[in-house]
Amino acid sequence: MKILRGIHTAWGSLVFGILFLVLLPLFLIPIVFPSQYKLVGILNRWWARLLFTFIGVPFRTEYRAKLDPKRQYIYCSNHFSYLDIPAMGLAPHNAIFVGKSGIETVPLFGWMYGKLHITVDRKKLKSRYTSVKRSMEAIDEGKNLIIFPEGGIVTKKDPVMGPFKDGAFRVAVEKQIPIVPVTIPYNWIILPPDEFLLRWHPLRVIFHTPVETAGLTAKDIDTLKQRVFTIIDQELKQHLKNEN
To answer: Please, one GO biological process term (predicted)?
Structure first.
């Protein structure tokens, strides 16, 4: 079984790399011309759909409410697997990621990621401050954001979330931008972070009803954070129950 999973993983890595090289010239457009930032989200959707199709992972997106294409959102998702990044590429809005600076160490891909998205070294106070500042600037520029509020893959017991960081919620309150909680229930099964071996299982991404922030202040950040956590957590527990 592990041999088959190893072959599947090698194929998945090859497909990921080929798609990256094919799409890289197109990703250069918003790098050279930042005003074309909407291309990032469009290309991410192409990449994600092609990736999951070619590696044989059936995927489905679900919406608990209709998302307004004319509004800006901050997408906040649980994070149990490296597969969560391409999964969030399926987000319907053209969005950029706020992610760990360690990705920038990956040859070529890291360079592209650092140019198009916002990176943060959570061990450094200055970097955390800069990422929040850049996130607010991105909102002012009309961009949507995708943030993993756990701050990385921190869970020690899948699928149990770690505590949320404040950054996403601070930006949402400051800019009065609604948050879309997102539940990704099965990626920890498909690509466990401690094995990095693919396992076949359908992939689902669930976009919940946006949580409005209009009228909220800094005093409400903890309450907002808990509300979003609870929405995602309850969905995760339901799927875990069904899985068992």
So the answer is: phosphatidic acid biosynthetic process
Q: What is the CATH number of domain 2-243?
A: 3.40.1130.10
* Distance from C-alpha of 195 to C-alpha of 203, rounded to nearest angstrom: 18
Burial 204-227 (b: 16+ CB within 10 A, else e): bbbbbebbebeebeeeebeebbee
Q: How many CB atoms lie within 10 A of CB 123?
A: 8
- The distance from CA 12 to its chain's CA centroid, rounded to whole angstroms, is 19
Query: Residue 80 carries which side chain, given as an amino acid letter?
Result: F
The parts of the chain modelled with pLDDT lower than 50 are: none
Percent of the chain with pLDDT over 70: 99
Amino acid at 143: K
Span 68-79, pLDDT tens digits: 999 999 999 999
Which secondary-structure segment (H or E) carries 142? Answer: none
Chain-wide mean pLDDT for the chain? 94
On whether the pTM is more than 0.85, the answer is: yes
Pairwise CA distance, residues 139 & 104, whole Å: 22
Q: Which residues fall within 8 angstroms of residue 82, CB to CB, at 6 or more apart?
A: 153, 191, 193, 196
Backbone angles phi, psi at 156, to 5 degrees: -105, -5
Backbone dihedral angles phi then psi of residue 145, each to the nearest 5 degrees: -120, 145
The CA-atom distances, in angstroms, between 152 and each of 26, 30, 103, 158, 215 are 28, 26, 11, 14, 29
